[in-house]
Amino acid sequence: MQIRVKCNCGERNCEEWGVVELQGVVEPQPGFQGSLANLQIGTLCRPSSQEIYTLTIGYHELRGSKVSLKKPLLVLKKVKHMDGESCSDVELQVVGIIRHKILFKTRPKALISKPQITSREKPKAIMLGSAASNQAV
Amino acid sequence: MEPPQEISGGGGGGAETLKNMPPGSSISIAYHPNFGPHDDLIVLELDEKLIPDVLNERMVLRGQPDEDAVLCTQSKTYAMKFVGTSNSVLLVPPENQSESYENQQKNDINNTDEKAVARIIKVVPGSLELIEVSPKLDKLKLLLSENTYKFDENDMEILEENQESRAGLYNWNDLIDNIQASDEELRFGLQALSAVEINGYWRLVDESYMDMILGVLLKNSVLNDRSLNALNEDEVVNMLESDGFPMVLARHCLHLYANQVKENDSMESCVWKLDEKRVCIHYAREILKGGKRKLESFMEEWRKKTPDKMQPSFDLMEGEVLTEKLGVETWVRAFRVSSLPSTPAERFSILFRERAKWDWKDLQPYIRDLNVPGLSAEGLLLKYTRKTQPSPNQDPVFSAR
To answer: Which of A22, A37, A53 lies at the smallest CB-CB distance from B33?
Structure first.
């Protein structure tokens, strides 16, 4: 059998999707299981003009950077056509392409809310504001 | 549903936001309203040079349910390997893709801080990677051998409409459904097998039938004093047709045993020159069908069978026969490279079952057609053979690993 790879992206290029990659697992508190829709995970911050990013999740902060992928990733969607008898008519639809990711490859650093002010006051404030909604890493 | 205007106050969202974060800004990362496993979303890593093939829809997955699917472009075949990751890969679609219901209502977080949101649709467990592989053409030979075209089929062509007679017959679409190869590789494979399209089906023609046609062609050429170096296609085809052979096979005979030396222009037909090597090999095969022969008697009969102007020489038989010494006699028997499997492991296993030790001179014709992407000929030998050289001035000998 054959499965065609369809692409409606047009001549130029496919729509870009984004990726945030981090070590370990993002684990919501048990109370949120089953109702994750719209739940905030954390705050992504780009402090300077460098491609360095921080991701604050609960009391943890991750530092990472934007990396260009050596080879792009295609996002494909399996589409089943149920028309007629041939219900096994499957097609792969290209829905997007990924060329960059924001990669956090280090372990998280615990943020302890001591009054000692460091250079990173802004993400800390955000972290405190959203800390109630979830927990991670 | 309504356009997601409420979140636009925060500067849109989704993948674009993630991509274009200005320095000093921050965005919120959240689960998408439709966050879930989304098993229908697959991530495939591929080389930049294949992107045009994607955009122009020249890619297709091929394989039967019991086979590992391969991805084919017009000219190449790729195996697909799933590579998992232990990292959390959070996938963010562009916002307009996720225009789905209710994400406007539940924007309580957005209202409190005016921040853009990148929404995670799924956690990707890994991606598929592509590895270039050789096409799986052995199955092609197998399928086409189910029902070869034989002499008596001429008379049965009326039955063609009958569904029964389709057993073991494959048209192009049947072949691409069954064979894991790109279109180009499949066409090349059909050519290498000397297959011919008859009434829409790709067929192998029974060798003794082709022998009959070639015999008539040669005899008639002699009778009519035609040069074997300048056969007029129309004349030859008409002559063979009047002898009762189908036109498509008459043409096939020229393709198999001759080379076109002149294209047809508006007035005259094509001109073909009989290929000495292919004709000689054909007759050698016919002789050895009966089993092994003493070298002298083989050569004698071979000379007798081939057209007078041709000089059968034993060098032509590379990759066709093996010789062995039994006492003082040298014997010849058929051992055709074209009858061997094309996967290196199977090929070498059969070769070493045939002979435990091979000289390079003998081995080379049986492996030179092997083609494994990313592996050189030396690499192949290193992987599948053990090379021994008794002394520096002796030729190396290859044995099984």
So the answer is: A37
